[in-house]
Design brief:
The protein is α+β, with helices and mostly antiparallel strands. 48% of the residues lie in helices and 15% in strands. The strands form two sheets. It has a three-stranded mixed sheet. The longest helix is centred in the first third of the chain and has 23 residues.
Length: 191
């Protein structure tokens, strides 16, 4: 990437130089000779870096492609371009999720956590979604709450009623259909 940027800078600086010489030149009598000379120098400036990539009169395409290829290395801020893209994507997806669940009468979106693919092949695709929902004030049942016997086990038991679980499954299905993601990869926590 450094080769290409320095190559373009050299050409740009030389074109600015040509413009300045054209402005400063004393008369039109010598202008065509000056332009001819500067044209030859411009051709030399353009061809010289390319000839540096040649070996034994054969253009080494690999060197040219490597020097011009995209490199997702660290930029000046110390963060890779891929990380910046994923961070921006997560922000936009969270806004989109808020709009998607805005009309729900039982839950509001507290936050959304996205597991986004970082690999070259599936870059930017969503692998998993975690939603943290808040139950709206009018949907909580009031009165006496019956507490079941507490048993310590390895598998968690759902504490949401049948209607609440159906509603969460409905939300999972909506999100699954919207993002074309398996329901097993969508996790919902209610606070």
């Amino acid at each position: 990437m450094g080769f290409l940027s320095s190559y373009i800078k050299n050409i740009a600086v030389f074109l600015i130089f040509i413009t300045l010489v054209g402005i400063i030149s004393p008369s039109n009598k010598y202008k065509k000779y000056i332009n001819l000379t500067l044209g030859f120098i411009l051709i030399f400036v353009i061809i010289t870096p390319i000839t540096g990539l040649m070996k034994n009169n054969n253009l080494n395409i690999n060197n040219l492609m490597v020097s011009m290829s995209y490199n997702p290395s660290l930029d000046e801020g110390g963060v890779s371009q891929n990380e910046l893209i994923i961070k921006e994507l997560e922000g936009e997806l969270e806004k989109q999720m808020g709009l998607l669940l805005k009309g729900d009468e039982n839950y509001t979106l507290e936050s959304a956590i996205f597991d986004i693919d970082n690999s070259t092949e599936g870059f930017g695709s969503i692998k998993k979604i975690g939603l943290i929902l808040n139950e709206k004030a009018g949907t909580k049942k009031r009165g006496i709450i019956r507490v079941e016997k507490i048993v310590v086990s390895e598998t968690p038991k759902e504490n949401i009623g049948a209607g609440g679980q159906e509603k969460l499954n409905e939300i999972k299905n909506i999100v699954s259909g919207f993002y074309n993601l398996s329901v097993e990869n969508i996790y919902i926590t209610v606070q």
